[in-house]
Amino acid sequence: MKDLIIPPKGWTKDMGTPERTGKPVHLTIDGVAITVPAGTSVMRAAAEAGITIPKLCATDSLEPIGSCRLCMVEIDGHRGTPASCTTPVTEGMQVHTQTDQLARLRKGVMELYISDHPLDCLTCAANGDCELQDMAGAVGLREVRYQKGENHFEVRANGETNPRYIPKDSSNPYFSYDPAKCIVCMRCVRACEEVQGTFALTIEGRGFDARISTAAPDFLASGCVSCGACVQACPTATLVEKSVEEIGTPERSVVTTCAYCGVGCSFEAQMRGDQLVRMVPWKGGQANRGHSCVKGRFAYGYASHRDRILNPMIREATDQPWREVSWDEALAFTAGRLNAIRETYGRNALGVITSSRCTNEETFLVQKLARAVFGTNNTDTCARVCHSPTGYGLKQTFGTSAGTQNFDSVEKTDLALVIGANPTDGHPVFASRLRKRLRAGAKLIVIDPRRIDLLETPHLGDSWHLPLRPGTNVAVLTAMAHVIVTENLTDQTFIAERCDLDEWADYAEFVRNPDYAPEAVEGLTGVPAGLIREAARAYAAAPNAAIYYGLGVTEHSQGSTTVIAIANLAMMTGNIGREGVGVNPLRGQNNVQGSCDMGSFPHELPGYRHVSDDAARAIFERAWGVTLDPEPGLRIPNMLDAAVGGTFKALYIQGEDILQSDPDTRHVAAGLAAMDCVIVHDLFLNETANHAHVFLPGSSFLEKDGTFTNAERRINPVRRVMAPKARYADWEVTQLLANALGAGWSYTHPREIMAEIAATTPGFANVTYEMLDARGSVQWPCNDDAPEGSPIMHIDGFVRGKGRFIRTAYVPTEERTGPRFPLLLTTGRILSQYNVGAQTRRTENVVWHDQDVLEIHPHDAETRGVKEGDWVRLASRAGETSLRARITDRVSPGVVYTTFHHPDTQANVVTTDNSDWATNCPEYKVTAVQVALSNGPSAWQESYTAQANAARRIEAAE
Amino acid sequence: MTENKLVRMANQIATFFEIQPSDRAANVAAHINDNWSPPMRAGLLDHVAQGGDGLSPLVLEAAAMIRPARAS
Ligand code: SF4
Ligand code: SF4
Ligand code: SF4
Ligand code: FES
Question: Which residue in A has a C-alpha nearest to residue B11's C-alpha?
Fold first, then answer.
């Protein structure tokens, strides 16, 4: 177990005001000479010199406002005592931070603050962690001379109810707000605006009457999204985590990485003993820069939820109840079955599914188990169902299957094109960073069937919303390319230097075809031609334009084509290879990038090398001492098909719930039911486990060491802060299983697995745990060519050499609306829930989203007689389900929208088996459906629930 | 795996390469060789041998270049 790593200066200390990047300025503070960038505040310069100036309203995540006056200093040649937080340094400045005058003035300021503050420090949640306390100590406050007068903290004053007293607001499940302790420093208001971008808090009243307000009855009813930025900024216990109120202050902290989304935020897991007190975003985290969202910050309660299964369980058949057994018995049972299946049906009847929630090291081991121990390439990952088209499209055009930028790059963006992504819900911390840029004047183009929240964000620059019909991404993007090419808005220098010119000539001729003009496709896409033209011109004109895209791009029958179209746009406008530009896939789960990198796909060894590549296979054959199959294995949908066909019999699934997350639930269920040995390795009895024969308990991200790789290719360390509750970390379980099959593995720590990855995979060659400890994180490729890692890719040339333009023609999906299914269903996610919800549903996050609802346009609702909150039946050619309706014009007429966080809803009963042509990534984003009023849950939902309840029975211990 | 699905997947792949300027059939074959497991390729080739009902002409043209499964 490891304490906080040694960080660079300023990674943990509060420097008072934000960092600046001007020319060097020299000054002297208390006789100490120091050089800082122009624009730096005197306060920050002092902190750099190791001198701490007392302060209350300033903190380095926020712009200073100079309201508390505690930070005053004397400057030679200046009159008075300016606030050091708002005074920028000048050349040759001589600053004094401690004089008799300053000491007297500061005491006076503190005395005033304390006179309106309750003195119940000993029982306060922030005791020992309160900046007001610290400052009272720092300025030497020894007495408060004011008579008891008007104040904000006494319930009753002068025998009467105190009109200024506002009771504590505990409506938010994770933090409380106690106005009695507020010193009106406005840090929370500024954090909500500047860091989070939500503007949920304001100041009401002036002077002594000034109060913080949510402009709503309470926090829960307000616009607050519970990101925690205000709580972190608050210097007192006014805004404080309920867990701190309950447990007390932490005694140590370990830096680790959020296990939810692909942003990959760094957190300090603050501990007391082996109890997690709170997760605080770490400002040294280079993906999140000290910010967080409600999931990573607060929704970790699932890790200690009573539903967690802590003992291995087995059963002969899935209609029997589970039997808890020892690890030895479970492993012997499993190995017996697997060996028998291999004997009868051959090695290709076995397969694995790796998890994009588990660490790189765990994923690497699971695919190694398949390839080296089972002897098959039947390994796939649930990244199949989200970002496999990214892999294909970017590899074809750029030569490597990864996003081109780091998140910091957004700070240099002049125009963001967001397509098929809903960052405020799916990638909240990135969204906050993007919104900050929009407030500073960057332009925004959103291509999405639904009016996403990002469009509502306050911004200075222009914004366009292209509300296309689901499934027409390629038509819209190709039309944009048509405009850029025909109006000569291309970057000829970039193309000439960096791209293959024959392919460019061919492509340019191809898109010039008037069939691809915005006017020609208007009827198809539903987007007014003028809007496409404007957007295309704006994208081409922006000095730095960046494309951010999500599952709305990939989860289509033309997902790979869309990714290619995106790459084409970026290349023709020269938006590759520097800060502020690029092609950025926003990955869904935390380790989607990593699970792809680690060779989870059936046709690719770690590092995206095809299994038929003799040289690549030789590396692993030498390292593992086995012969590897040169033929690609089965993908998830193919495994299920083969299972139904009787040739695929055993599946080891680590950390995924394919029954809930994969399309066409009935087909998945049939496939699983046809297997003889389904091994589920997870925290909970998930939906897939209803069809499993073996359950191996998993470990949460708090219980193991390893690494996650986020959407910017950043390898972030995950550190164990407590012992595995079920005895073993996930990598140990995979090793036990491999050894039960005779593999003879002997890893003693994930660092040894990383060493094996580095030794076999060129992009990871220089990655070690020691490096991650010293640097915090690193972006691959990290090898002798790029020893510092690679924040931005394709700087001097594309990985594949010349960038490659590829023709992209719109092909309508086979999923077409007709009289029976006249509406198009598209799916997404919301902020407080995560993926299939297995974790977030087991936290207080359910207060924000307790069921999935169907968004439907008022027009479509009216013609069906549907009113707000009605139960409706949602049917497609694959199946039907029921849920409640929400009537909103965020969706266009003809389009309906839902999330898939709750198993009762079973939205994937409705989705079909259509998939991307290149990668079989399922087409979640377009399903033709009909909506009608209903009485309640469908027959399928009820029979499903009955089956699930039966399958979850655990035999009582004898 | 049902014939039906293989036909549909192969045709989808052909649709992408159909509009490319060159090597269409070769690219269809390469994509299938690289991504499909041997039993899936065998299934498709079987279907082609039986007349290739429902397959696009480009898939039929590519069939000659699709590697059969190695005997294992
Ligand atoms: S709630 Fe905290 S951060 Fe906000 S004004 Fe009051 S003391 Fe300052
Ligand atoms: S938790 Fe976040 S959104 Fe809510 S008020 Fe605080 S800063 Fe604003
Ligand atoms: S943005 Fe993503 S990585 Fe960051 S805290 Fe939220 S869920 Fe975790
Ligand atoms: S810290 Fe500078 S005025 Fe408050």
Answer: A917
